[in-house]
Amino acid sequence: MASLKNKVALVSGAGSGIGRAIAISYAQEGAKVVVADINEEHAVETVKLITDTGGEAIAVKADSSKAEESKKLIDEVVQRFGRLDIACNNAGMGGPAKPTAEYEPEEWDQVIDLNLNGVFYACKYQLAQMEKNGGGSIVNIASIHGQVAAPNSPAYTASKHAVVGLTKNIAIEYAQKNIRCNAVGPGYIETPLLTANLNEEGLKAIAAKSAINRLGTVQEVADLVVFLSSDKSSFTTGAYIITDGGYTAV
Known about the structure:
Strands 3-2-1-4-5-6-7 form a 7-stranded parallel sheet, with helices on both faces. It is α/β, with parallel strands linked by helices and 250 residues long. Strand 1, helix 1 (17-28) and strand 2 (32-37) form a beta-alpha-beta unit. The model has no long low-confidence stretch (mean pLDDT 97). Helices cover 46% and strands 16% of the residues. It has a single domain (8-243), classed as Rossmann fold.
């Protein structure tokens, strides 16, 4: 049975990787999906993957780091589908790899603007619409580095810790308005970005960081997000659930 039948879902950063897998999984579970990405071509590709298998989706170009574009995105969702039931805020970036003292302010700002401010902007407008609907579910994609350090990635680590905190605040503030908010913390996941930048030896080294001794798959993350987005997790809010193959257990 489709767990998201008749729901309207929005996914940011859905043009590739984890975001694409989430968008496709939402559609497979019966949701009408709005695929948002700063790269419109990639968003259209995701939509085609959905519609070619009988799903319903539209692509919207949006820069998650800008408040006005987050508002416009919700306006487009409502104009097309009349409501918003589910949102997954997935758009993010890693930033330069360097120690804290060597980070330039503009580099810091770029990461924080997308990874933290972007999630706040998204939630702000999603929450307002979900209140009109009478409820909804938000899933914010954080990281294992919402809990542990990522040396030489101070902005990334700070932003992901902050996303976890923001998620918990929203969950408490909106629990009695029938709006749930949870965060997912992926570990090292096999995505095109990862495989394109590391050789086989590098990939094996990263895989060995988890107790399971392999990289995670985008589908494994998507399956968890679908669960948190559906009524099957109706008593779960304010949670930060890690999917990392045991990386943070030691």
